[in-house]
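Interim report to the steering committee. The following record documents the input for DUF3310 domain-containing protein (98 residues).
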Amino acid sequence: MSALNTQVAGGHYKSLKIQPIEYIHANNIPFAEGSVIKYVTRWRDKGGIADLEKAKHFLELLSNWSKRGRLNEGVFKEAPRLGQWPGLHRSLGGHLQP
């Protein structure tokens, strides 16, 4: 069974054609941008306005980092690839390809 078939605390991703983690991984999207996608995707079915506020917070962080020229540094430059986390691919049931 793939870890994507199991959801802790709700079913807000199960009705989607593609889960945010699949889209984020397939497009190598860094953490902060991925968080915006995650919160905006689920706000109607899980966290309501609080999820929109979380997405807004990550957008503000991205804006601030960009204005200071930090988006090309280390963690902001590129999302870690699946192969950089030993065992994660196995825990996801082999669903995501490294």
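Residues 13-91 form one domain. The committee is asked to note this result when reviewing the revised timeline.
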